[in-house]
TrEMBL record, chain A:
The keyword Nucleus applies. It holds the Pfam family RNA_pol_Rpb4. This is RNA polymerase Rpb4/RPC9 core domain-containing protein. Residues 92-126 form a coiled coil. The keyword Coiled coil applies. One of its GO terms (cellular component) is nucleus. Keywords: Coiled coil, Nucleus. Residues 1-23 are annotated as: Disordered.
TrEMBL record, chain B:
Pfam families: S1 (PF00575), SHS2_Rpb7-N (PF03876). One of its GO terms (cellular component) is nucleus. SUPFAM superfamilies: N-terminal, heterodimerisation domain of RBP7 (RpoE), Nucleic acid-binding proteins. It comes from Stephanodiscus triporus. This is S1 motif domain-containing protein. The keyword Nucleus applies. It comes from the Eukaryota. Its main location: nucleus. Keywords: DNA-directed RNA polymerase, Nucleus, Transcription.
Amino acid sequence: MSSPANGRQRRPIGASLSSAPGTFASSSSAVTVVENAAELSFGAEFDDVQILSNAQVAVILQMSAQNALVRDEELHDVYKKTQRYVERFNTMKNNEKEHQELVDELDNLQGALTTFRKETEDANSEELELHGFEVAALMNLVATDTVVEEAVALIPSLSRFPESAVDEILDLIRSTMIRIVSYGS
Amino acid sequence: MFYVKTLEHEIELEPIHFGQKLRATIVRLLKEEVEGLALANYGFVVNVIEVPEDQIRGNIIEYDTGNVVFFVKYTALLLRPFVNEVVDATVAQCNELGFFAYVGPLRIFVSKHSMPEDMFNGFDGERDSWVSDDKEVVISSGCGVRLKIKGRTVEQGNITAIGTIKDNYLGLIDDGSGEGEGL
């Protein structure tokens, strides 16, 4: 299941190391889910999480940084590194927009993607929907010129959708992206 | 990938802190202890978003020390690499075995075996960069690369990952100065 081209590859199954006293560490179970984002298998403890795209994180960190400034608190190293990272790789930013507007736009996009439904054409006719991970990955990786082929190569689990559906999804993201970036407040 | 999750933490407080500002003290201590930490399975705690009012429980007085142990539930913003996830990263340094790239605080190593064939021998010691055979692609410190995470290692208080740029649509994004084209 792993490609032989890689040199060092260690995958800790059910890592149970505790990094600091009092930290909430997970215990390893006898049968662990092999995590694989390409198949959307993440393990039970990630069932109830909300996954965020870089753009949303950027807004959150900006707002939080302002609060910290007001309270005269130091921002720690991990925070600053993360903020620098999301600022750099954020495709949906607009410095002139109000934070609340951005949050609304991004939440709308996330909502639209999450509620995106597609009926399969085969006999089962079940409804396909996007997993939270796929939604965030799409919002992170898609650019205005991304084609269906690229999107499916980057996010393999999208292959369960017909091409037309993936195209629709990309359109959704593209239009929101253009709207956020070009609309000056 | 960034995600939000509710976690729980234990804080031990000495009686001297009890008083008007008890709640603020607990929140402050929680942030100091937890933010920036790398939890084994949940990833890096980037930020404590919220400590809900009713989520601080503390009824136990330790008879040895007189301190009280508080169990605090909080929502945190976490960063964790998932296997087979594609992320953009910033290149930090190159050596003859590969290069290191960072996603925020997370360090990812891409070995030369995980680079396309035409870059395998492309390490340029003088310029500290990886160059493809046709000289088109130059990966050096400060560049943005799109890579796929292949594995995750958890060591004492730190999480690192292994990545690859060998697949389609992965590799150099920009050279750190302006716009560029993805491979």
